[in-house]
TrEMBL record:
Organismal lineage: Bacteria, Bacillati, Actinomycetota, Actinomycetes, Micromonosporales
InterPro entries per the UniProt record, alphabetical: DUF2550
Annotated protein name in UniProt: Uncharacterized protein DUF2550
Transmembrane parts of this sequence: 6-23
Keywords of this entry: Membrane, Transmembrane, Transmembrane helix
Length: 155
């Protein structure tokens, strides 16, 4: 009888965990401005290390939340003022097993780091529009140093 009680408690705990993950995902998606994407988290093994999740547009940021995580905070935050897209390609090699066929991989640069994100081909147009709709950037912003200093306030 004791074994059945422990098994029952484990089943209820597992169902509660699955419900929490589903509820978190639903809560993120109801806010609007959400897309499905994958971020290349680990680059040790070529073609592997992709993490599926949701991207949420909040002002000048794209916040990446992992799909199977209970974390409240996003895993990555991409700032549109420092983000540039360098290359667009189709998934190749082992990536084709984890990334859907109608998705594309974007190689992005943020300051001094390189990041790869994958999203549906139809989503790329909206993502690039969001990226270009930001305030104008000065050429030095990619290096973390503004070309021109702040203007004094005249009054």
């Amino acid at each position: 009888m004791r074994v059945l009680e422990i098994a029952g408690i484990c089943v209820v705990a597992l169902l509660a965990l699955l419900f929490a993950i589903f509820f978190r995902r639903r809560l993120l998606m109801t806010g609007g401005g959400t897309i499905r994407l994958q971020v290349h988290i680990n680059t040790i093994v070529p073609g592997r290390g992709w993490s599926p999740g949701l991207g949420q547009f909040v002002g000048d940021e794209l916040r990446f939340h992992r799909m199977f995580s209970l974390a409240i905070r996003p895993k990555r935050i991409l700032d549109r003022r420092a983000l540039t897209v360098e290359d667009k390609r189709l998934p190749a090699g082992p990536e084709r097993l984890t990334i859907p066929g109608h998705w594309v991989v974007l190689r992005c640069r943020m300051a001094d780091s390189v990041l790869e994100i994958a999203m549906a081909d139809t989503t790329v147009t909206g993502f690039l529009s969001w990226l270009e709709a930001g305030p104008p950037r000065d050429p030095g912003s990619l290096r973390g140093r503004p070309v021109f200093g702040p203007r004094p306030i005249e009054g």
